[in-house]
Amino acid sequence: MRALTLVAVAALVVLAGCSALPATDSRPTPGEPATAPADFVDPDGDVLGWEGGYWYNEGLPVTDDDGLNETERRMVVNRSMARVERLRGIEFETPVDVDVVSRDAYREEYAGNGNASDALRTFDDAKFEALFLVGEDRGAIDVQRSNRGSNVLGFYSPSEDRIVVVSPTETPQVRETTLGHELVHALQFRQLGAGYDSPTRDRANANSGLVEGDARFVDHQYGDRCGADWDCATAGGGGGGGDLHLGVYLLTYFPYSDGPGFVEAVYEDGGWAAVGELYGDPPASSEQVAQPEKYGEDQPADPTLRDRSANEWSRVSVDGRAPYAEVGVGGLTAMLAYPAYDDSRRGAVLSPQTFLNYRDGAVDSRDPFDYTTTPVEGWDGERMWVYEHEDGDLGYTWRIAWDSPRDATEFADSYRDLLRYWGGERVDGEPGVWRIPEGESPFADAFRLTVDGDRATIVNAPETDELDAVHEPRN
Fold it and tell me: Which pTM does this prediction carry?
């Protein structure tokens, strides 16, 4: 694996698992935290910055190097709740249950939970193949589950109202910033109405850009105080290695990289009250998260894409999801950047300097990826229909709207470079048609790319003579 992959692995942070809950219009107004007295005496009532007998800046008689016993863990959890209250300005009305499990236990009990329907597997296989992330030799659902098993540090379960922290050792260890991050999620789902429908990947990245961005913005502040103003439990944390797919990781990392900047931009304009208002009107696209100035100003377009498939091709849909895929700027950036991480071929489509953010000569660990590179920054909406042939072959039609014809052309140029990278060749006598031969890469298929003004359309089929059957071209 190329040396560049170490950049992404070094940037691993908390990836939280959150389920949907109904939104609420009753959101707390951020309050002014209390100041701890010099003797840390308990207050007369429950105040912001104090929880379960501990103030936010109170020292604890615990040692975390050898793991935390149950009593020590409860102390750390209560103090961490007090610290989140102080930073976020919202009161924990009741305690939060926290479990600590080993990496192996997490993989066994949580990472692979849930049965994926045949329709979901088919849909995701086509979508991740369209992104040139997971080829026909692997299952997209399995790759995503493997990634979660390798890099999740903790999660909050709204349905169970509890936090699970993943310890790198069998003796329970807790990194306090991970705990603080997940405690923010508890406040979000309990009191801010953070449960949203996420019918597409782009909407999931947009919603998580708010939810994870808020939590990451707080845990950045939390971490800055550890060692400076606060004593913190620092053992624990870190990914668990394993078979981490860096292209899929880049796609799912979007909320953690760009979300904090989105929330910070809103916070700087209007404080926590303005951030709280976002929960009633979350961003409509990942583009609005990546470029906060577009929030509320640049709604994603609906590029009309009609079904023009032949009878032997059937459109695939998944219950509870939109009938189409939409990957947004996070997905498109992952698609074009992944060749720089791939070690199966030579070359790249985007240079690392294009999609990595640098600070003081090193990759910015808090915001490592730029999801608005030149071929992607003009994104304006998309639709991808997934099709299955009666013999089981897959195909798709993907239309992406851009802000201008120039943006569409820039994307098309980079997409052709992507086809070349994976072994694609132009088909003589058929304008816009490409073919990746069998055995050349895991993405052997036929492709037709056309640009019409500010719309780029990609049609995929197993063979060139099937392209019209998936989507018949019309004048």
Answer: 0.91
